[in-house]
Design brief:
Number of domains: 2
Strand content: 25-35%
CATH architecture of the largest domain: 3-Layer(aba) Sandwich
Helix content: 10-25%
CATH class of the largest domain: Alpha Beta
Number of helices: 9
Order of helices and strands: HEEEHHEEEHEHEHEHEEEHHEEEEEEE
Structural class: alpha/beta
CATH topology of the largest domain: Rossmann fold
Shape: elongated
C-alpha cells in the first residue's frame, strides 16, 4: 500500500531530514574570545561533520609554538581530517602576547604572570557549555613552546587523559617540581638535530630522554622499551625514525617516544613553507598522536570522582536579579559567568560567596563556573531581566 502524506506531514518530514542532515554533515569552525585574567583571549575550534548534539565526543587542544598562532597550528599541524572520521573536536587557542609575540606561560617564563593553565581550563568549560564533550577524553598536544605548555598542563591540571609534545620539552624547573595529580600517558616526537630545543637538553631544558623517563616512572611503565624502526618510505627527506614503546604501566598506560634521527625543529609530514628544517616524511605526526590519544580515558583519580558528587544549588533559575549559591558544605570562593559566545561577563573572588547580583545582565543563557578550595562545578543559568 502506498503511504499518502498530508502537506503538513511532508513539511515536518522534510524539516526533520534537513535537521538530521545539518547535524550529520555540517562542518563548523567557530571563532571566539573571552576575557580571562584581564586579557582578551582568542581561540577557534573545529566541529566535525560527524558530531551529533547530545553525543559526548573527545576534545584535542593543539598549542602553537612561540610567535605562532592557533590558526597557524590548524593549518600546518592539521588534525581536522582525522577529526572528521574519528569524531572529535579540535581546539586552536591563541597564546597571549608579550612585546607583540604570542607565547605560552609554563611557569613565569620571561617574568610573565599570565595564567595560561586557568585560561585553558576555562576554555574547556566554555566549549563544553555549548557542545557535548566527553570530559574523560580531553587531550592536549603542543609544538615547541606549546609542547612545554602541554607538559605544564600535565603537571598542574587534572583535566587531561593524555598529553603529547613535539619539538619541545620540560623546563628544568618544571622537571624538578612537577607533581601530577595522577599518572598520565604521554607521547613525544623530537628530532636529534633540533637546533631550537636540542634533543640532549640545555641548562634550562631537560633532555628528551630524561623527560620520557620521567613520565615512564610516573606511569610505572617498564623501563626497557620495545623499539620499532619506522619504515624509511621517503629516502630523500634526510631523516629516519625510531619508535620507543614503554608499556606495562598503571591502568594499562604506555609512554611513547618517536626519535627522529636527523630531524630538525619540525612536525613530521608537515613541512613549513620556506623552512630549512629537516622534516621527516616517513610518518604523520598527527596520525600517530591521535592513535596514541584514542587509547585513553582519564582514570584513577579519586579526587575527580569526589568532585562529581558535590551538589551545587543555584536559585532562583531563571533569575532576574539576586542569585543564591550553595555547594553542600563547601565554601565557594570563585564565581565566573560566561555568555554563550564565550565572553566572561562576571568574575567574583571572595572568601565566602553565598549570593551574587545579576540584575545588570541582559536576558539570556549563561554558563556559571563555581569553585572553592578543592572543587569545581559548571552550571547553566537563565537570566530573564
Amino acid at each position: 500500500m502506498n503511504k499518502i502524506f498530508t502537506t503538513t506531514q511532508l513539511y515536518l518530514l522534510v524539516g526533520i531530514l534537513l535537521l538530521n542532515f545539518a547535524f550529520s554533515q555540517a562542518q563548523t569552525t567557530v571563532n571566539g574570545s573571552f576575557e580571562f585574567g584581564g586579557i582578551n583571549r582568542t581561540y577557534s575550534f573545529y566541529v566535525p561533520a560527524s558530531y551529533t548534539p547530545g553525543n559526548p565526543v573527545p576534545m584535542v587542544i593543539g598549542l602553537h609554538g612561540l610567535s605562532s598562532s592557533g590558526s597557524n597550528f590548524a593549518q600546518y599541524r592539521d588534525f581536522r581530517s582525522i577529526a572528521d572520521t574519528a569524531n572529535f573536536i579540535v581546539v586552536h587557542p591563541d597564546g597571549s602576547t608579550m612585546v607583540g609575540v604570542r607565547f605560552w606561560n609554563y611557569g613565569s617564563i620571561f617574568g610573565a604572570t599570565v595564567d595560561d593553565v586557568g585560561f585553558l581550563e576555562a576554555l574547556i568549560d566554555t566549549i563544553s557549555a555549548q557542545y557535548s564533550i566527553n570530559q574523560q577524553r580531553v587531550y592536549c598536544v603542543g609544538m615547541s613552546n606549546g609542547s612545554f605548555m602541554s607538559y605544564y598542563m600535565a603537571c598542574q591540571s587534572n583535566r587531561f587523559a593524555a598529553i603529547g609534545g613535539v619539538t619541545g620539552s620540560m623546563s628544568v624547573d618544571m622537571y624538578n617540581s612537577c607533581n601530577p595529580a595522577y599518572p598520565i600517558p604521554t607521547i613525544h616526537i623530537h628530532g636529534t638535530d633540533d637546533s631550537t630545543n636540542p634533543y640532549t637538553g640545555t641548562s634550562t631544558m631537560a633532555a628528551i630522554e630524561d623527560v620520557t623517563m620521567f613520565w615512564v616512572n610516573q606511569n610505572e611503565c617498564n623501563t626497557t622499551p620495545t623499539v620499532f624502526q619506522i619504515p624509511n618510505i621517503d629516502p630523500n627527506d634526510d631523516a629516519t625514525a625510531e619508535r620507543y614503546l614503554y608499556s606495562g604501566g598503571v591502568n594499562g598506560h604506555t609512554v611513547e617516544l618517536f626519535k627522529v634521527i636527523g630531524g630538525g625543529h619540525s612536525w613530521p609530514n608537515s613541512p613549513m613553507p620556506g623552512s630549512s628544517e629537516v622534516t621527516c616524511m616517513d610518518f604523520d605526526g598527527c596520525v600517530e598522536i591521535w592513535r596514541f590519544f584514542s587509547q585513553y580515558e582519564k582514570s584513577g583519580v579519586a579526587a575527580i570522582e569526589d568532585l562529581s558528587k558535590i551538589e551545587l544549588k543555584i536559585w532562583p533559575n531563571p533569575t532576574n536579579g539576586m542569585v543564591y549559591i550553595q555547594a553542600d558544605n563547601q565554601i565557594v570562593t570563585d564565581v565566573t559567568l560566561f555568555d554563550l559566545q564565550g565572553r566572561m561577563v562576571v568574575s567574583i573572588t571572595e572568601e565566602n560567596i553565598e549570593s551574587i547580583d545579576l540584575s545588570h545582565l541582559k536576558s539570556g543563557n549563561y554558563v556559571v563556573n563555581v569553585s572553592g578550595g578543592d572543587f569545581f562545578v559548571v552550571k547553566k543559568l537563565i537570566v530573564s531581566n
